[in-house]
Amino acid sequence: MKCMMCENYSLTHICPSCQTTFLSPSLYKRQLQNGIEVYSFYKYKEIKELLFTKHTDVGFYIYTLLANNSFKNFAQNFLFDLPLVSIGIDESVESGYSHTAILNKALQSRNITPLFAKLRAKNKLKYSGKSKAFRLANPRDFTLKKFPQKQVIIVDDIITTGSTLLEACKVLEVEGKEVLFCLTLVDLQQK
């Protein structure tokens, strides 16, 4: 097959050279209105075309590659005194997989245990390309399945306005959970 970026022949969807050259993550930080920090690994323009594979067959491989290059490396270097869990935003399966579950799974480490399908949205509207007003008028309406751990990392692929992560934080806090921070692949403010 050909590398999706340089079009040279490769055994993977993105060749090792392009992974090193174009997909080396950086760490960007934004603070939500509630004071919780959101850490992201890429600028939108760096991986825009790769994000569009989200609901295609090839998206599974692309999101796995991005997760391994960013979330997995982060988890292996992250130290914390107490055991933590991570949960993905609405890990609904579309096109045969959940992109947020792929990101969440990559956090598995000695300090972080991913939990799956714990935070589900009852509202299934698509928010891509919608305004902040639309997002605020149409909340996700999350339900949370119970789990014993108190300290949580929230995982999503993209932060745009921050309204989804804020809503998730509120749901978790009502249940007595402490959201330490959020992780996303991309912060749309980092263009």
Helices and strands in order, then pairings?
Blueprint: H1 16-22, E1 28-31, E2 37-43, H2 44-51, H3 57-77, E3 84-88, H4 99-105, E4 112-115, E5 119-121, H5 132-137, E6 142-144, E7 151-159, H6 163-174, E8 178-187
Parallel strand pairs: 2-8, 3-4, 3-7, 7-8
Antiparallel strand pairs: 1-2, 5-6
Describe this structure in words.
The chain is an alpha/beta fold and 191 residues long. It has a single domain (25-187), classed as 3-Layer(aba) Sandwich (Rossmann fold), CATH 3.40.50. The protein has 6 helices and 8 strands, in the order αββααβαββαββαβ. It has helices at residues 16-22, 44-51, 57-77, 99-105, 132-137, 163-174; strands spanning 28-31, 37-43, 84-88, 112-115, 119-121, 142-144, 151-159, 178-187. Strand 3 (84-88), helix 4 and strand 4 (112-115) form a beta-alpha-beta unit.
Arithmetic mean pLDDT: 91
The number of E-state strands comes to 8
Intertermini distance: 30 Å
What's the CATH C level?
A: Alpha Beta
Work out the radius of gyration.
16 Å
Proportion in β-strands: 15-25%
Query: SS-based structural class?
Result: alpha/beta
Q: Please tell me what the overall shape is.
A: globular
Question: How many H/I helical runs?
Answer: 6
Mind summarizing the main beta sheet?
Answer: 6 strands, mixed
CATH topology: Rossmann fold
User: What is the helix/strand order?
Assistant: HEEHHEHEEHEEHE
The residue ranges in which pLDDT falls below 50 over 5 or more consecutive positions are none
Domain unit count = 1
Strand arrangement, major sheet: 1-2-8-7-3-4
CATH architecture descriptor name: 3-Layer(aba) Sandwich
- The helicity comes to 25-40%
